Amino acid sequence: MKAGINTRYGGPDVVEVRSAPKPEPKENELLVKVHATTVNRTDCGMRTPYPFFIRAFIGLRSPKLNILGLDFAGEVESVGSKVSTFKPGDRVFGLSPDTCGAHAEYLCAPEDGPIASMPAGASFEEGAPIEGAWYASLILKAFGLKPGHKILIYGATGAIGTAAVQLAKSYGSTVTAVCAGRHVGLVESIGADRVIDYEAQDFTAIGETFDYVLDAVGKSSYFSCRRLLKPSGVFSATDLGPWGQVALLSIWSSIVRSGRVIFPLPRASKEFIEFLRARIEAGLYRAVIDRRYALDEIVEAYRYVETGQKVGNVVIKVTSSD
């Protein structure tokens, strides 16, 4: 099979598209023919790697995982002897958080893992971008978001931000989103009640407070945003922040039981995939797609993602059909 392979750490050019052995499913696994996947911030961080300490988990001198790619959509090619809920030909989408491998024509996924039938009416390219919605959902769930809550989402145009806006609205919350002025129309179109152009206004000085503040792009901090919080308000971010301050403040908040800062650990589950499928089928969530690349163009996709200018998701078309 063809795959994007990186055997060393470094920039986008360390990824080479070449042949790799086709995986064989275990008795409890599906072999999925991947039709679409994404290149995202997580892939870039694992390839670089960033932050440096993640080498302790993904390989000190060279990467343990040579084929990246967290999310996928495709078709079941074959199943292991003990698989009962899927069959060849089924259209599926899901996450591969432990072994990655979606930047390839085939991957294996456990039947009881974060994988489910494709949402009705969705194309593979529409179903593949899951990573951003996963991170957004983890934080919103940890917030305990409910109808009537007010949330501010900074960085509302990335994969996580566009997902957070839509999912927060699906919970019945009032959403104030922060983005560059040229993207205001897009963010309004996905459901934000109010959009602030950070290029024209300091969003931290708007004189309003919120139940929750989410930095969906990792470019702010709790100390910059705390005046936006109600007395019982909670801050979270999708990045560790300078010197890992978000994680450290989360630990401290837990110790003193203030709950002011949270940083939930990523855990993928079948329940999340089913949750996302229901939101898609109900018209409450759609992946925002910026650009599409062929698998052979994955290095260019990495370069574009690392400009920091992408809006929503960058999709890799692994096969030409949908």
Automatic annotation (TrEMBL):
Region annotation Disordered: where it falls in the sequence: 1-22
Which CDD domains does the record match to this protein? MDR1
Record-annotated Enoyl reductase (ER) domain positions:
10-316
SMART domains recorded: PKS_ER (SM00829)
UniProt protein name: NAD(P)-dependent alcohol dehydrogenase
